[in-house]
Design brief:
Largest interface: A-B, 30 and 26 residues
CATH architecture of chain A: 3-Layer(aba) Sandwich
CATH topology of chain A: Rossmann fold
CATH class of chain A: Alpha Beta
Number of strands of chain A: 9
Strand content of chain A: 15-25%
Structural class of chain B: mainly alpha
Strand order of the largest sheet of chain A: 5-6-7-3-8-9
Largest sheet of chain A: 6 strands, mixed
Number of helices of chain A: 9
Structural class of chain A: alpha/beta
Distance between the termini of chain B: 26 Å
Order of helices and strands of chain B: HHHHHHHHHHHHHHH
Oligomer: heterodimer
Order of helices and strands of chain A: EEEHEHEHHHEHEHEEHH
Chain lengths: 250, 319
């Protein structure tokens, strides 16, 4: 494992009976980068994230997060990784502050530090006005922002974000993407961003990986992938064009 | 431990603040109150006979009021408390998407199930203790009899057995909430098992006993056959946790009872002993009589929880 590699998988495989959801995945994500993890529905992105977190046992291969095996050192890995699932759930009878307090207690954060942290995070995600509103009354965008606050409360060094902007209006989605970008820039948090919104991924990602049918078919910077597919030319290709080219090929 | 404590605290708050718990508590408190009131009235009317009784206070729990005694009520309907507290504990988390959030926090996965089970047990303990205390206070006021140390100890043992009994049903409902994705399915499965184990086992025991050793009440049957029939019936019915619980608590609450079996089943020595020694059993002796029942109850509770624990830890987490 290289010194600056923070996530590494070697021949990572996940099988459900005969079906291979993830097949021999070799992935390296460097510290401080935003890695766009792309692919159609059912490509194996979420399964990969669950294996990276140690929540799902790989059928083969290995995973290292900061040099730690998530299966053997599950608690340590989960302490440094914040995970926001695609359909993040909330206890709808709690308010935003209570939700954050619960997550803080699960993370073993001391009570005297919790209040200060919660105020700081609510400010960061723009939910100060709604701090004592029941989560059940939140819009999807507000819930996503609360979800980000929940994963940030443990001060993670890595973020796994699964379809962060799904179902959000363009303005809300843009705000979230900018927030993630600023977290990456200011706090040097490494981000693994799974998304179908290629425009947003292109906006903030340093590198991308395209996964189709459980296999990583392409990995690199957007420029290098464009060169690989279209050769050197005057035209600047969008991630969408590159993605479609790979997708049609498979 | 911080993860376990956090889950425990959250679950406990949820139980105590839920309408489900409040309604259940009110219902059970009301029925217990009525039952003990009826028992108290009955005792008051028979004060003379009561004066001869060594443990009148315990009669508040053991003597039937209008329909049933407190012990019988807990034996029949106590399981509902356990089932209601646990039937959706895991599958609701899964359905609302909070399970994956929980297990992605830096806690061991077993903290989730341990926290939920312990919170359920704590809720059951609080509920039963408060009901026993209310009945005791009510009994003091109504009958005017102060409980002795022996009676208090017996009540504590009764409370402990009851907590284990209801915790067994809590374990069953948590197990079903892990097995079944649908909340309605797990609720239905839990209730079906409760009905089967509490009501149908006795019918099954009768059928099994009559099949192996038919005892016809119309015709004269040999005494050995009747004893065999009774023995099979009693053995088969022990599969039911309700029977285990009823037998254990009846002996604990009533010191005059010296055996869990029926009089027909008594051997000659046992008959001789019970006719010669009319004194009540001490608590230690009563506990020895029901030791197998108590051990079985504790064992099935722990086995049930252990199965839930293993299944939950082995289960794949999906979003």
């Amino acid at each position: 494992m290289d010194a600056d590699t923070i996530i590494e998988t070697v021949n990572l495989t996940k099988k459900y009976n005969q079906y291979e959801a993830v097949s021999n995945l070799n992935l390296k994500v460097k510290e401080g980068e935003i890695f766009g993890f792309l692919g159609p529905n059912g490509a194996g992105k979420t399964t990969t994230l669950l294996m990276l977190l140690g929540l799902s046992q790989p059928s083969g291969g290995s995973v290292k997060i900061c040099g730690l095996d998530p299966l053997r050192k599950a608690k340590e890995v989960k302490r440094i990784v914040g995970y926001l699932p695609e359909n993040v759930g909330f206890y709808e009878d709690l308010d935003a502050v209570q939700s954050l307090e619960y997550v803080a207690s699960l993370n073993g954060i001391q009570k005297n530090k919790t209040e200060e942290k919660i105020n700081e995070l609510l400010e960061l995600v723009g939910l100060v006005q709604d701090a004592h509103k029941k989560v059940g009354a939140f819009s999807r965008g507000m819930k996503q922002r609360l979800g980000i606050a929940e994963v940030l409360i443990k001060e993670p060094s890595i973020l796994f974000l699964d379809e962060l902007t799904l179902g959000l209006d363009p303005e809300g989605a843009l705000r979230l993407i900018d927030l993630i970008h600023s977290l990456n820039q200011d706090k040097k948090i490494t981000v693994l961003l799974c998304s179908h919104n290629l425009h947003q991924v292109q906006r903030i990602s340093n590198r991308v990986g395209i996964m189709i049918n459980g296999k990583m078919v392409a990995e690199g910077t957007i420029t290098s992938l464009a060169k690989e597919k279209f050769g050197v030319g005057e035209k600047e290709y969008s991630l969408e064009e590159i993605y479609m080219e790979y997708f049609q090929e498979v | 431990m911080s993860g376990l404590f956090a889950v425990f605290k959250k679950e406990l708050c949820d139980h105590f603040s839920s309408y489900r718990f409040v309604i259940l508590f009110a219902l059970i408190a009301m029925v217990s109150f009525i039952t003990s009131y009826m028992a108290g009235i009955h005792m008051k009317e028979n004060l003379e006979a009561l004066a001869k009784t060594r443990f009148p206070f315990l009669m508040l729990f053991s003597s039937p009021g209008a329909l049933f005694s407190m012990i019988q009520f807990v034996a029949f309907f106590g399981p509902l408390i356990g089932l209601i507290l646990g039937f959706d504990s895991i599958n609701r988390e899964r359905a609302q998407g909070t399970l994956v959030k929980l297990v992605s926090q830096p806690i061991y996965r077993d903290a989730v199930i341990n926290g939920k089970f312990l919170a359920g047990v704590a809720t059951i303990s609080v509920l039963l203790t408060s009901i026993v205390l209310v009945i005791s206070g009510f009994g003091l006021a109504l009958v005017g009899v102060v409980p002795g140390i022996e009676e208090i100890w017996r009540l504590l043992v009764y409370l402990l057995i009851s907590i284990f009994y209801i915790s067994f049903w809590l374990g069953i409902s948590i197990l079903f909430s892990i097995f079944f994705k649908g909340i309605a399915t797990s609720a239905l499965a839990s209730v079906a098992l409760w009905i089967f184990l509490s009501f149908f086992i006795s019918l099954g025991a009768e059928v099994a006993a009559n099949a192996v050793a038919p005892a016809d009440s119309q015709n004269q049957t040999k005494p050995e056959i009747i004893v065999k029939n009774m023995r099979i019936k009693e053995t088969v019915s022990l599969i039911s946790p309700m029977v285990l619980y009823s037998k254990a608590t009846e002996i604990i609450i009533d010191p005059m009872r010296k055996t869990t079996g029926s009089i027909i089943m008594m051997g000659p020595m046992e008959e001789l002993l019970s006719s010669r020694f009319q004194n009540p059993l001490t608590l230690g002796q009563s506990m020895i009589v029901v030791f197998p029942h108590m051990t079985a109850l504790i064992a099935i509770t722990l086995i049930c929880f252990a199965i839930s624990y293993l299944v939950f830890l082995k289960q794949e987490i999906r979003t």
